[in-house]
Amino acid sequence: MTDTDLLLPVRTGEIRIHDAEGFEGMRRAGRLVAECLDMLVPEVKPGVTTDHLDRLVYEFVNDHGAVSATIGYRGYRHASCISVNHVICHGIPGPKALKEGDIANIDVTLILDGWHGDHSRMYGVGEVKRKAERLMEVTYEALMAGIAAVKPGNRFGDIGGAISEIARLNRFSVVDDFCGHGLGRLFHDEPNVVHSARAGTGPELKPGMFFTIEPMLNLGRKDAAILPDGWTAVTRDRQLSAQFEHSVGVTETGCEIFTASPKGWHEPYKAQRA
Question: What's the rounded Cα separation, in Å, for the pair 170 and 194?
């Protein structure tokens, strides 16, 4: 990576290989965004608006010397995406209050010292129905199955293959309209990480690659629709959707999760109920 890449990073069409400095930068950014989502665990409850949660994210990010990667991105105006119930992703925070039994994905990306921390989790609002809880559990299981496939010599398709198998066994569908992506000093870089890919396909995983894995599983069909706001993606059949996301790096022996919760709250709904 040249000095020009550091100052003005651009997509090159190739998957970047990062060094030890990159790993350290991603650890700091990943830990901070995980701390931000930890902060939200006690805040997600009935009667709270998604706009209020977004303000908490904005204040946390700025108070910790980082900046929001989403504010101003393609005209987006918020520090988070908050996707409730049948919203698959890119839900826009607003004045509507959460209610008992809702489920919500909160997705935050921040920039710390030039490095991007990108992370999302599911939160339950009060007591949720078992089918919603099960959807969240299986989506997290699918994420971790995908992460377990990350090691040198494997291929990107192995990630999607592992995720798809978990979804199939539990009779959920995998949304294939959205995917994970490379990141580092760029918010979105090569490669695309397809969650419904076939095992054994795609580029080879090599040490130093950084990317997100962020499967979205639906209770019903996989089909998505984009609302007129140009951002919000919803399930066409109005059934529930869930998503978890980690930012990871390929190591010499496997995978490092940059966005692991310092408090061990990787599955926030369990933390909320503890």
Answer: 19
Q: How does strand 224-226 pair with strand 189-193?
A: unpaired
Q: What pLDDT tens digit does each residue of the chain (274 aa) get?
A: 333 344 557 889 999 999 999 999 999 999 999 999 999 999 999 999 999 999 999 999 999 999 999 999 999 999 999 999 999 999 999 999 999 999 999 999 999 999 999 999 999 999 999 999 999 999 999 999 999 999 999 999 999 999 999 999 999 999 999 999 999 999 999 999 999 999 999 999 999 999 999 999 999 999 999 999 999 999 999 999 999 999 999 999 999 999 999 999 988 888 888 7
The structure tokens listed for 214 are 């962020």
Query: Number of H helices and number of E strands within the chain?
Result: 6, 15
Q: Who contacts 74 (Cβ-Cβ below 8 Å, separation ≥6)?
A: none
Record the pTM: 0.95
Backbone angles phi, psi at 226, to 5 degrees: -100, 130
DSSP state of 75: G
